[in-house]
Each structure stands twice: as structure tokens, then as C-alpha cells.
Amino acid sequence: MKVAVVGAGVGGLAAAIELAEAGHRVTVFERGAAPGGKCARVQSGGFTWDAGPSLLTMPWVFADLDVELLRVEPVTRYEFADGSTLELSADLPRALAALEAWSPGAGSDWMRFLAVCASMWRASERFLTGPPPWPPRRPAPGEPPPDPRDALAVKPWWTLRDLARATARDPRLRMVIERFATYAGADPRRAPAALAVAGYVEHAFGAWHPRGGMYALVEAMVRRLEALGGALHLRCAVERIGVAHGRVWGVETTTGAFAADAVVTDVDERVVRTQLLGRAARRRTPSLSGLALLLGTTDPAPAHHRILFPADYDAEFDDVFTHRRMPRDPTLYVCAPPGQGWFVLVNAPASPADWDGTQAAVLERLDLHPGVVERVTPADLGGPIYGGAPHGRLGAMRRPGNTIRGIDGLWLCGGTVHPGGGLPLVTLGGRSVARQLSGSRPSHVPSAR
């Protein structure tokens, strides 16, 4: 089968590799000058930054790539407005000791949180590796039917805030738990409790960083694709997906038409519908976007991953989701890998804002005076990072699916569709789409420990 892949992000590359391994003829079209999509590398003034995803979890997903993964300890250092700090390790005894020293009783609360999330993780295998659960479908031949207990395990009646309040007594620990909503670009007060699984995998399976930076994953994927005979065309934008009589026939690019038996897209689902198909997009609350500051500094950092919380966490989400403005006192995420500059991410709406003012306030808060500052705004990121925000108690399971009704041969992957964003999920999603296209069954994910 001849397959065209639109977009060389990590999800598209994962799908292309899986398809090439299955014997299909695969051609990837990327409008940019480099592959990787949001997983980008920026170099300026002698500094190098990973300008997209900066935390790697679920390392087995990338085990077949020629990349060395280094464990990051602690997983994250949390800094609170009252001046207190908490360093959480993936080593459970060390984490519990730190929690108890920080807030008596927090260790047992953390164990209660992890126990709930472990059940969610065990229930998530089918969701992570297979087609979307909504709308309900008849199991394929040989596929086990859904287990009703899985639906209960993800606490569908709880928001993430409900889960935080049910498991943690210290308001600061609740903030740590609620922050996992931002991994999907959501407001913890409206996000499903199931998003807590993101925090569970960090601490059950550890946090990792590829030697050479996150972009080393992209380079390894391109090497694998080309070794399998796949083709990658850079600076070649797809302008339209060709459809005739309810089936794709290929794509129209800036260099001409390309006939294909199937098309896989790794671009924002709204872009697929509105720009590549000329259809109307469904209205959804946009997810968080972000302002990224790439700081050229050699100042030592307290930790690889650091979170600086504001005094009023709710006000930040009110600003972004209700008022559509930059938070007055935002959370700062700081990533400072060895040998690289600092990457600082600030939650932001997808709409324009006073980026100069925000940048100045962030540098003052960090007490930094870097010689080089590169800026990546929501406009550079294409708007919301994760497409629509997964709000509602079933939000995690109601993401846009991997197909579009009425168009055979068209498959969607990437962070704005099922199973969601983040490097492991977009990789699993790309592979799942490729297997469905090829008619094979999904593989398994590790059991919760």
C-alpha cells in the first residue's frame, strides 16, 4: 500500500516507521525546514535548547530507537509562594521521606494518590494502545470485550481537583496533583481525574532525558524511517487532501499532486478539517498554549525540572480560560538540562498578549540576566498546544478520534486527537493508527507496579 503522511512530528514519524516496517511504501511531507513538529531544537549564540517537550516518561515506548536515555533525579523540584520547596523522586522511599519532612502526613497522602492512579493505569491499556473508546464500537474478532471495571477505575465522576482533595490534605500537595491537568492543556477544576495518570507514570516509571537532548529522538526516528526505505520531503507543504467518492486519493502539495492509497495526518485536527478538507471544525474550548523563553545562561539550576507556583493557582486558570489573558502571576516551568540553556514555559491563552511585559516579569522573578533570549509565542506554536481542552468528567475519553466519518483511507494522529499529547502518547497513537490501517492488533503496555 502507498501511504502519504502529512507532518513529520513525532506522531507522524512513529506512524510512518510502523507502516514501513509492515511493508508499506511511505512518504512523509513536512512543510517546515526540519522534522520533529513541536519537538524542536533551537540554536543561537552558542546555546542549544529543546524548544518543545522537555520531559520524557514511559521509556519503553522508545526502547527500539538508537538513543541513550538518562534518568533524571529528582523528577521535579516544586517551589511555592510561601518559600517552601519539595523535591519529588521516582524512588518511592526517598519521595516519602521528603514528603514527610516537608509536611507531616503528606507521605501517606501521596501513597493514597498513587494507589488510585495505579488502578487508573491498569485500566488504561486499551485506551492508550487502541482506537478511541467513543463512540462505543463492537470488539474486533479475537479482541476481548471492554471490562466495565475499567470505566469505574478512572473515577469518571471526579474532576482532577476532586481527586486532589480526596487524597491530599496539604493545599500545596493538592497543587502538585492538580498541575497534571496542564499536561493536557486543561483546567484542573474542569479536567477529568484520569489525567492524574500523567503524574503516576512519572513516579512509577521515572523521568528521563535523551543524551543529546529531546531532539535526539527525532533524529533517531528519521534514521529508522530512512533505513526502512521511507521518504521524507522537507519544505513541502500539503495544501489539500484529495477526496473522491468518499475515499482519499492522495494529497496536493506545493510541488504537485501525490497519489496514495491512504493518508495519515499529524497536524492539528482543526487544520485537517478546515484547511486540508475545507470542512467546518467542531467548536471546543481551546487548551492552554504557552509562552516559551529560551534563555542563554550558564547559571547553575537547582534541578533539571523545576516548577514555581503562584500564590493563587485558581486565578491563573481564571485568567487563561475565562478572561483569555496572560496570568498576572503565572506558574513557571523551568527546564535546565546539563549543557543546554534554560527553557522556561509560561501558561498562556492562544490569543495575543503583552509578550515583552511577560518576558520582563519572568526574568525578574527568576533574577536572571541572560545574554541571549529567544521567544516562542502561541502564534509560533499554532495556537492551543493540545487542540481542545479535555474538560468534563469524560474529557480524556472524548478527544477527537483517529478517523473522520465519511472519508475512507484517512487517519489522524498527533497531540490533538486520541490518545492525547506528550511524546509517549503521540508515539503510541501514531503506532496505533498505523496498526489499524494495516489491520493488525495493538501491543501491550507494562502493568502497574
From TrEMBL:
Ranges where the Amine oxidase domain occurs: 11-264
Keywords recorded for this protein, A-Z: Oxidoreductase
SUPFAM superfamilies in UniProt: FAD/NAD(P)-binding domain
Stored Pfam families: Amino_oxidase (PF01593)
Listed Pro residues bias regions: 130-145
Positions of the UniProt region annotated as Disordered: 130-149
Pathway: Carotenoid biosynthesis; staphyloxanthin biosynthesis; staphyloxanthin from farnesyl diphosphate: step 3/5
GO MF entries: oxidoreductase activity
UniProt-listed Gene3D superfamilies: FAD/NAD(P)-binding domain
UniProt name for this protein: 4,4'-diaponeurosporene oxygenase
Originating species: Solirubrobacter phytolaccae
The organism's taxonomic lineage, starting at the top: Bacteria, Bacillati, Actinomycetota, Thermoleophilia, Solirubrobacterales
